[in-house]
TrEMBL record:
Keywords: Electron transport, Heme, Iron, Metal-binding, Transport. GO terms for molecular function: electron transfer activity; heme binding; metal ion binding. Residues 121-209, 324-427 form the Cytochrome c domain. Residues 272-282 have a biased composition (Acidic residues). Residues 46-69, 272-321 are annotated as: Disordered. Residues 46-60, 283-301, 311-321 have a biased composition (Low complexity). InterPro entries: Cyt_c-like_dom (IPR009056), Cyt_c-like_dom_sf (IPR036909), Cyt_c_1A/1B (IPR002327). This is MFS transporter. It comes from Pseudooceanicola atlanticus. It comes from the Bacteria.
Length: 428
């Protein structure tokens, strides 16, 4: 005979016993909080004032028979945690933050300088701090490394299809830069910089955007004197006052206009296609014929082109530069591409574009803000030739005092020869 019925009956009986015990003792060990108790327990009506003897008896009875809930209330009322059950309907969760706790987290700096701590930092100090803490991601010149954000450059690009939004080109408030560096940088070690360090790094970022000179010192006293180029580039969003009121009114459904007048027909507005072979088709045909006629005129141009090619043949007779040396120079120039551009469409970045630099007057690129040393060289009429360029690229700071280019220089003569050959091959 199978033992399954006996096993099944035993298991079922045991399960039923466990469930019954759990149900009976479910509320036995629950210590309800004061708020929950007040929400669940029924209010007790206050008794009428008794005679004196009865009052004494009544006052003695609760002491003799204390209720469990009364003990819970008494214990919780002795705690020092503020009771905020009535503050904003927060169901007794948490407590109000103390003023000291709020002040400890209130670190932000407003555009008007509110929250700015006392301190100062120079561009010179900021250059070293930026190199030690920021350059690994943002580059030595704040030009950005790989996909990390650029902090300098981007002048005049906000209207482009792919604008370069940096501290100098886009940010309207300097307080944003100070606040972000202070609270969130350097990456992986946030809030490790002192206030003076933050001032110095922000000063160097301003210098990298050509907004201050190399001897500038940023402090809480002159912080608001710094003018950001895009400070007026933003507008106040006033749609809540000017537009929302129009959208949130009851729409008109009947008799919304006193009279309806036809002012123009769709066929006249050219939004309705004409029938095939109509006037519109003829106009398109005529326009196409008119457009195609001038295409035959440049037939006489090859003669002029042939004449223009003659000097090129003569120039070819001159000794050409070594292509291999130019190719090597292009590889060396990769160290410079973070700040300089060459070729078609080259623009100024944190350094000037270098098209036709060999043979050009020093400090002559338009719309670029040079250091005082290069401005003086330009006024003196000094020219970039192969010798001066080699001397500059070997030791930039020794060649031109006060130069903004913090590149240490090329150490190998072969690299100097190659990059000069490459720059000589890049014309205007």
């Amino acid at each position: 005979m199978s033992k399954f019925p006996s096993l099944f009956i035993g298991i079922a009986a045991g399960t039923a016993g466990v469930l019954t015990l759990a149900y009976v003792s479910a509320d036995g060990g629950v210590n309800r909080p004061d708020g929950m108790m007040q929400m669940t327990s029924a209010p007790v009506a206050a008794p009428a004032a008794p005679d004196a003897p009865d009052a004494m008896t009544a006052s003695a009875e609760p002491a003799a028979k204390p209720q469990k809930d009364a003990m819970v209330v008494s214990t919780q009322s002795e705690t020092a945690i503020p009771d905020i059950r009535t503050e904003g309907g927060h169901f007794g969760i948490g407590r109000a933050a103390l003023p000291e706790e709020v002040a400890a987290w209130d670190l932000d700096v407003s555009p008007d300088g509110t929250g700015l701590p006392v301190g100062s930092g120079s561009v010179e100090d900021g250059e070293m701090l930026f190199s030690d803490n920021c350059a690994v991601c943002h580059g030595e010149f704040a030009e950005g490394v790989d996909n990390w954000p650029e902090l300098a450059g981007g002048d005049g690009t906000l209207a482009d299809e792919d604008p370069v939004k940096t501290v100098g080109s886009y940010w309207p408030y300097l307080s944003t830069a100070w606040d972000y560096v202070h609270r969130s940088m350097p990456y992986g070690n946030a809030q490790s910089l002192s206030n003076d360090d933050v001032y110095a790094i922000v000063a160097y970022i301003l210098y990298s955007n050509y907004l201050v000179e190399d001897d500038f010192v940023l402090s809480n006293e002159n912080f608001l004197e710094v003018e950001m180029p895009n400070a007026e580039g933003f507008i106040v969003d006033d749609r809540a006052e000017t537009e929302y009121t129009k959208w949130r009114t009851e729409p008109c459904m009947t008799a919304c206009k006193e009279s309806v007048e036809i002012t123009m027909r769709a066929s006249v507005l050219d939004v309705t296609p004409e029938e095939e072979g109509g006037e519109a088709t003829e106009e398109v045909t005529q326009a196409a014929a008119t457009t195609e006629e001038p295409a035959a005129e440049p037939a006489a141009e090859p003669v002029e082109e042939a004449k223009a090619e003659e000097p090129a043949v003569q120039e070819a007779s001159a000794p050409a530069a070594d292509p291999a040396l130019i190719a090597d120079g292009e590889k060396v120039f990769r160290k410079c591409r973070a700040c300089h551009e060459v070729g078609a469409g080259a623009k100024n970045k944190s350094g000037p574009q270098l098209n036709g630099v060999i043979g050009r007057t020093m400090g002559a690129v338009e719309d670029f803000r040079y250091s005082k040393g290069f401005e003086a060289a330009h006024d003196e009429g000094r020219i970039w030739d192969a010798a001066s360029m080699a001397e500059f690229l070997a030791k930039p700071k020794d060649f031109m005092k006060g130069t903004k280019m913090s590149f240490a220089g090329l150490k190998k003569d072969a690299d100097l020869e190659a990059i000069i050959a490459y720059l000589s091959s890049v014309g205007e």
